[in-house]
C-alpha cells in the first residue's frame, strides 16, 4: 500500500502500539482478578469501586502532568520513566493484603500509566504527516484493546495455575521488558540513524502545520482554544463507556449471569477484539472520506458520529436474554468506542503544534478521566441496588451528546481551491 511508504515511521508506531498493549494488559489484570480478589479480601462492589476510583483519580491528576513532562523531557526519556513506573507499580499489587492496600498500589499504577496516550499522540505528531495520522493513531490505539483482550485468558490462566499474585508479577514483568525495548529502539526522526533523507524532508515540511494556521503552544492558550473543548467535552462523555468495559465486564458477567473464571477467560476478551476493528475503522473511514473530497476535520467528525450512533447497541444490554447476547452487545460497544475515540485523539495531533500535542492530549485525557471517575462512583453506589441496565442506557446517551458537542464547537472549512483539506477554526 502506498500509505505505508516510509517504513521507519511504521516501525516507530509499532513500538508505541506494543507499549500500549503492555499498558492495558497491566491495567486490565485487576478486572480479571476482581472476582478472585473480592473473595480473597471480602470486598463489596462498592469497595471495589473505590479501588478503581483510586486508579482513576491518580490517572486523571497525572494526565496533564504526564503530557507536559513528555513535552519537557522528550518522548523517549519521558515514556521510558513512566513505563518503568507502571511496571513496578503493577508488580506491587502482589503485596496487597486488603482493599485499602490494593487501592494504594492502584493509585501508583494510575499515576504512571497516564503517559501512554499522550506519548502515542506525540509520536504520531513527530513521525507522521497529517494525512497518515488517523491510521497511525488507530495503530497505537489498537494496543489498548489488544492489551485488554489478552488480559482475560492470560490472567485467568495465571490465577488458575499459580495464583493472583503471580498474575500481577508476570504482567508487570512484561512491561519492564517493553520499557527496555523502547529505550533502545526509539529516536526522534532527526536523531534516528535509519531514516531516509526523503522521509525526513517530508516530516520537516509537515511541521509548518496545515495551511499555515497559528496553533496554541501554551497551556493557557490550549484552554482558550474552542478546538480543545470540542475534543475534551466529547472525551469526557465517552470515557465512562470504555472504563466500564475495562473494569466491570468480568464483575457484570459473574454477578448477573453467574459465569466463573474459566468462562471469563473464554468470553470476556471478545469486546476488545471488536474494539480492534473499531480502531481500524477510525483510521480507514477518515481517509476514505478525504479521498472523496471531505475536509480533514470534517472526516474526523463524521467518524466520531458514526461511532456514537453505534453506542445505541450497548445501551440495550439490560434487555439481553442471555450472556451471549450481552457479550455481543459489549462487542458493539467496544467497536463503537474505539472508533469514536480514535477520531477524537487524532484531532489533537491535527489541531496542535508538535510542541503542544502532549500537553493538549494530556489535558483532554484528564477531563475524559474525570468523566470515567464520576461514572465509576455512580456504578459503585447504584449497581448492587438498581442493577446495571440503567447505567448502560446512560452510556449510550452520553456519546450521542458528545457527537452533538463536537459538531457544535468545532467548525471545519470546506476543501480549499488548492486541494488542501479543511481545518479547524480555533477562535
From TrEMBL:
Gene3D superfamilies recorded: MFS general substrate transporter like domains
Membrane-spanning parts: 49-70, 77-96, 142-162, 168-186, 266-290, 302-321, 327-349, 356-380, 386-410
Do the record's keywords include Lyase? no
Tell me where in or outside the cell this protein is found.
Answer: Membrane
- Which Gene Ontology cellular component terms are annotated? membrane
Q: Which Pfam family is one of those matched by this entry?
A: MFS_1
Write down what this protein is called. MFS transporter, ACS family, hexuronate transporter
Task: Tell me what organism the protein belongs to.
Answer: Novosphingobium mathurense
List the lineage, top down: Bacteria, Pseudomonadati, Pseudomonadota, Alphaproteobacteria, Sphingomonadales
Amino acid at each position: 500500500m502506498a500509505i505505508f511508504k516510509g517504513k521507519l515511521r511504521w516501525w516507530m508506531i509499532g513500538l508505541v502500539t506494543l507499549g500500549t498493549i503492555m499498558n492495558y494488559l497491566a491495567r486490565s489484570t485487576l478486572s480479571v482478578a476482581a472476582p478472585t480478589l473480592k473473595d480473597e479480601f471480602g470486598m463489596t462492589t462498592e469497595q471495589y469501586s473505590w479501588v478503581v476510583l483510586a486508579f482513576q483519580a491518580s490517572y486523571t491528576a497525572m494526565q496533564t502532568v504526564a503530557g507536559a513532562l513528555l513535552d519537557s523531557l522528550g518522548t523517549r526519556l519521558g515514556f521510558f520513566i513512566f513505563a518503568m513506573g507502571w511496571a513496578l507499580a503493577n508488580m506491587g499489587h502482589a503485596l496487597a493484603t486488603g482493599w485499602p492496600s490494593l487501592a494504594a498500589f492502584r493509585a501508583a499504577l494510575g499515576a504512571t500509566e497516564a503517559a501512554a496516550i499522550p506519548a502515542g499522540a506525540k509520536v504520531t505528531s513527530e513521525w507522521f504527516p497529517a494525512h497518515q495520522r488517523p491510521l497511525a493513531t488507530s495503530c497505537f490505539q489498537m494496543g489498548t484493546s489488544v492489551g485488554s483482550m489478552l488480559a482475560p485468558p492470560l490472567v485467568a490462566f495465571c490465577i488458575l495455575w499459580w495464583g493472583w499474585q503471580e498474575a500481577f508479577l508476570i504482567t508487570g514483568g512484561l512491561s519492564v521488558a517493553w520499557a527496555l525495548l523502547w529505550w533502545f529502539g526509539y529516536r526522534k526522526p532527526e536523531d534516528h540513524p535509519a531514516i531516509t533523507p526523503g522521509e525526513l524532508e517530508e516530516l520537516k515540511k509537515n511541521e509548518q502545520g496545515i495551511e499555515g494556521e497559528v496553533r496554541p503552544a501554551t497551556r493557557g492558550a490550549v484552554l482558550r482554544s474552542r478546538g480543545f473543548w470540542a475534543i475534551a467535552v466529547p472525551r469526557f462523555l465517552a470515557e465512562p463507556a470504555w472504563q466500564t468495559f475495562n473494569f466491570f465486564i468480568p464483575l457484570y458477567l459473574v454477578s448477573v449471569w453467574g459465569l466463573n473464571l474459566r468462562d471469563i477467560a473464554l468470553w470476556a476478551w471478545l469486546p476488545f477484539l471488536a474494539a480492534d476493528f473499531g480502531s481500524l475503522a477510525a483510521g480507514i473511514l477518515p481517509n476514505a472520506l478525504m479521498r472523496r473530497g471531505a475536509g480533514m476535520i470534517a472526516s474526523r467528525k463524521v467518524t466520531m458520529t458514526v461511532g456514537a450512533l453505534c453506542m445505541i447497541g450497548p445501551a440495550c444490554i439490560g434487555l439481553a436474554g442471555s450472556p451471549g447476547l450481552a457479550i455481543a452487545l459489549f462487542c458493539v460497544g467496544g467497536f463503537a468506542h474505539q472508533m469514536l475515540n480514535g477520531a477524537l485523539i487524532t484531532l489533537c495531533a491535527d489541531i496542535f503544534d508538535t510542541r503542544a500535542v502532549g500537553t493538549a492530549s494530556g489535558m483532554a485525557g484528564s477531563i475524559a478521566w474525570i468523566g470515567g471517575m464520576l461514572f465509576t462512583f455512580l456504578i459503585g453506589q447504584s449497581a448492587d441496588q438498581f442493577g446495571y441496565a440503567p447505567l448502560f442506557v446512560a452510556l449510550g446517551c452520553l456519546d450521542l451528546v458528545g457527537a452533538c458537542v463536537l459538531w457544535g464547537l468545532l467548525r471545519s472549512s470546506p476543501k480549499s481551491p488548492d486541494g488542501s483539506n479543511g481545518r479547524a477554526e480555533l477562535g
